[in-house]
C-alpha cells in the first residue's frame, strides 16, 4: 500500500509525467496582504518629497496599488500637446514594485512607461528622469502614444541615482504604440523576440472609410509589406532589425516614419501619392513577383537537371548548384517580410478624385 501511494504521488520525469490532480491545479492563489497604513506612509515618502501626493480614493489597498494625484502639463505649440501625468505604484511580488507613469493625451490616447525594482524611491528617480516627450510624438494632424518600459536593473547606488543626465539617457523599450491620424488609428505591436516581425493595424475612426492602396506602406522599402484588407481596417507586417534596445529603437524610427508618411499622404490628393512614389510602387510590384519567378526558376531547374544529370560527374559543381537550387530559393522566398504568394500583382494605377475619402461623405461634411 505504501508503494502504491508513492507511485500515485511521485511524478516521473520525462514524457510520462502526469498532470497534477485537479484539486492542485484549481487551488486558490495565496491571499495578498492589503497595504497597511504604516506601509503606505513609508511607500509614499519619496513621492511626497517630490510633491506627488497619493490619491487614496483611486488607490486599492487590497490589491497593493497606490495611485497618485494627476499633474497637468500645459500645451506648448503643436509638438508639445497638453498632457495629464499620473503615477501608479503596485506590488510586483517577491518584494518588488512596479511604477507606471501614464500620460493622457488629447483625444483619449494614453502613453505609459513602467519600471520594476526593489524600492519605490529608485523607481521614482528612474521614471521621472525620462523626459515626457520620449513617450509621445506630436505634430500637426497626428498624435502618437507609446507603451514603454525601462530595462530591469540590479539596485543602483545613491550616486548613480543622483546622476539625472545618465538616468534620462537610459534605454527605453517600446512594445506597443498607437497613433491618432486624420480619420485613422494606427497601432504597432513589437515582439521582444528577435526575428519576429512587428504588426501594424490601421482602422478608420469614423464612417468615412478611406480607399487606401495596398502599397501605402510597402513603398517605404524592403522592411514593409502590403496592406491586407480586414473587416474593420487593414493589417500589415514590418521587419525589425537587431534585438533588445536596438530592435526597439528601429521600431520607434520606423513608427515615426510610417505615421508621418500616412498623415502626409492622407492630407494630399491621391494622385500626388502616385506621382511622388511611382518608382517605389513599381518596385513593390517587382518584389511581389519574386514568388512567381522563384516557382518558374524551380520548374525550369528541374527540367534542366533532368537533361544534364546523366552527363554530369558526381563531384561536379554544377550538379551541386542545380541540386541545391530549390531549397535555396525556398529559403529566400520565406525570408521575405510576408508569406510568399504566387500571383501576378496588379500594376500601379494613378488614383482619381481629390480625396481618399468617399465623395458622398466628403461633400456632406
Tell me what you see in this structure.
This protein is α+β, with helices and mostly antiparallel strands and 365 residues long. Among the domains are: 35-135 and 150-170, no CATH class; 279-364, no CATH class. It contains 11 helices and 12 strands. It has helices at 2-9, 22-25, 37-49, 120-129, 158-161, 164-168, 244-267, 270-288, 290-308, 317-334, 359-364; strands spanning 65-67, 71-73, 83-93, 96-104, 110-117, 136-139, 142-150, 172-180, 184-189, 198-204, 228-230, 233-238. Strands 1, 2, 3, 4, 5, 6, 7, 8, 9, 10, 11 and 12 form a 12-stranded mixed β-sheet that branches. The longest helix is centred in the C-terminal third of the chain and has 24 residues, at 244-267. The model is unreliable at 1-17 and 360-365 (pLDDT under 50).
